[in-house]
Design brief:
By secondary structure, the protein is of the alpha/beta class. It has two domains: 361 residues, Histone deacetylase domain (Arginase, Chain A); 60 residues, no CATH class. It has twelve helices and twelve strands. An eight-stranded parallel beta sheet has the order 2-1-3-8-7-4-5-6, with helices on both faces. A two-stranded antiparallel sheet has the order 9-12. Helix 5 runs parallel beside helix 6 and helix 8 runs parallel beside helix 9. The longest helix has 20 residues. It is globular. The two termini are 31 Å apart.
Length: 540
């Protein structure tokens, strides 16, 4: 694809065929199968030919513990429907309510979702792509030690932590109908990440957070922006507030990279949503953000009318690729889902728009006033950038961990990577053709990970040159501790809410000195965090 400045932009896309097999439960609105439906349309429209398709690595416990508590991740890893009674009252603090059920393969589902977002962030850090897409990501409600709103592991926070290794300022934009509370909370007291959420706000609408007056705290004051909206907002009204706010934010904050959460529950007709956006209105948000030519990580999110989610994310994959799609849907394994019209685009309902022009103008004025309170492009200090390309070692892998580089396979040409390990990151033939449904003939929960069909219905991978080996199999080290300006009277970490409990030690070949840090504990919005302040830092 080509940017507005005439430069060719590279797009990579992350998908694991197993993602569609996971099942929250018969009556649960969250259906991971929607991601398989999206991928099917991506294939049938031929979009895969215009981008690099990767199978993400599965995030391991260490990677997920960069934000989440180790005890919480260990519990997720151990929990299964058959043994949940062994955990007693402890489980209630981690998985409260019916929104986040315990289902077969729950931990592996989290690994795939988080792995795609981390892998995409690493690609962007390496400047190996301009746009990275992970529709299995965008689970923005998960907290440090608590599952919330169908979300168990916050892949967005993990991806942003990875991006912060190389980028001074990260902008997070959320167009899900629900407030991105988990991401906002994680970065509430830092100026390294600005969060902007456009969402329905009101009593009895989950999560009941995201008021206009919630603007961040401490060094993060005015770096949390909330755009509370009412029911029925349509394409024109949404565009009238989205574009001015995002333009002003980018002008003021000057982010080095953008993370866009494209929750599809803001579409008209969603089972849980209350907005009235069409695919064109929703997609205009992505098109507008993409137009700034800033590295972009695109993630999924909510969306509970499966056929519309698949339509939306396919359409937005095409937008990322600067490709026009015909409105007639191509034949695919789920063609009957799109009856009766079998069209790509959807029409808005006749719902009343409860967002008058005057209210939207007041919201914009308040946000612009808050933005005037922050310095343009705040400078930061960072420690030396750690290594970040390590092939994740599996339990059944006898090879030792080997650092791998996207370009040449590693720093040491004498070190060889086994074929078995390399094959794990090649998209196999049958992953481009799996078509199992979750309808009446669906497998039961106990066998949800049955192997895929051996006879694909689509062309084999070797006939598709865009499918390549994905060597960015995850980050090797824990996230950096980042310090404040030396002129400050205190040495608390501005990213403390994201880097909760990570301790990193670094050494230089030219010096034997050791970096030490002091740690205190504080609580923000009920979230206990560690504040680590390295005494040695270098300017970036």
């Amino acid at each position: 694809m080509t940017s507005r400045n005439g430069f060719k932009r590279k797009v990579c896309y992350y998908y694991d065929a197993e993602i569609g097999n996971f099942y929250y439960g018969k009556k649960h609105p969250m259906k991971p199968h929607r991601i398989r439906m999206t991928h099917e349309l991506v294939l049938m429209y031929g979009l895969y030919r215009k981008m690099e398709v990767y199978r993400p690595h599965k995030a391991n416990e260490e990677e997920m513990s960069r934000f989440h508590s180790s005890e919480y991740i260990r519990t997720l890893r151990s929990l299964e429907p058959d043994n949940m009674h062994n955990f007693g009252p402890q489980i209630n603090s981690f998985l409260a309510g019916e929104d986040c059920p315990i289902f077969n393969g729950m931990y592996e589902f989290c690994q795939i979702s988080a792995g795609g977002s981390i892998s995409g962030a690493i690609k962007l850090n390496k400047k190996a792509t301009d746009i990275a897409i992970n529709w299995a990501g965008g689970l923005h409600h998960a907290k440090k030690a608590e599952a919330s709103g169908f979300c168990y592991v916050n892949d967005i926070v993990l991806g942003i932590i990875e991006l912060l290794k190389y980028h001074q300022r990260v902008l997070y934009i959320d167009i899900d109908v629900h407030h991105g509370d988990g991401v906002e909370e994680a970065f509430y007291i830092t100026d390294r990440v600005m969060t902007v959420s456009f969402h329905k706000f009101g009593k009895n609408f989950f999560p009941e957070t995201g008021d206009l007056k919630d603007i961040g705290a401490e060094r993060g004051k005015h770096y949390a922006i909330n755009v509370p909206l009412n029911d029925g907002i349509d394409d024109l009204s949404f565009e009238s507030i989205f574009q001015p706010v995002v333009s002003k934010v980018i002008e003021t904050y000057r982010p080095n990279v953008i993370v866009l959460q494209c929750g599809a529950d803001s579409l008209t007709g969603d089972r849980l949503g209350v907005f009235n956006l069409t695919l064109k209105g929703h997609g205009k948000c992505l098109e507008f953000v993409k137009g700034f030519d800033i590295p972009l990580l695109i993630l999924g999110g909510g969306g509970y009318t499966k056929k519309n989610v698949a339509r939306c994310w396919t359409y937005e994959t095409a937008i990322a690729l600067n490709t026009d799609l015909p409105n007639d849907l191509p034949q695919n394994d789920y063609f009957e889902y799109y009856a009766p019209d079998f069209k790509l685009h959807i029409s808005p309902s006749n719902a009343f728009n409860q967002n008058p022009y005057q209210n939207l103008e007041k919201i914009k004025a308040t946000i612009f006033e808050n933005l005037r309170s922050i310095p343009h492009a705040p400078s930061v200090q960072m420690r030396d950038i750690p290594n970040n390309f390590t092939l994740i070692k599996h339990d059944n892998d006898d090879d030792s961990d080997i650092d791998m580089d996207d370009d040449d396979g590693g720093d040491d040409p004498e070190v060889r990577i086994s074929q078995q390990r390399s094959d794990r990151h090649i998209l196999p033939d049958n992953e481009l053709s799996d078509s199992e449904d979750e309808g009446d003939g669906r497998r039961d929960d106990s066998c949800h990970l049955i192997s895929q069909p051996t006879q694909p219905k689509k062309p084999k991978v070797e006939q598709q040159p865009m499918v390549v080996v994905a060597t960015n199999a995850g980050a090797a080290t824990a996230a950096d501790d980042l310090s404040q300006s030396p002129s400050s009277t205190t040495t608390t970490n501005p990213l403390s809410s994201a880097l909760m409990h990570t301790t990193t030690s670094s050494s230089s070949s030219s010096s034997s000195s050791t970096t030490s840090s002091s740690t205190t504990t504080t609580t923000t919005n009920g979230l206990a965090v560690n504040l680590t302040s390295p005494e040695a830092a270098t300017n970036v």
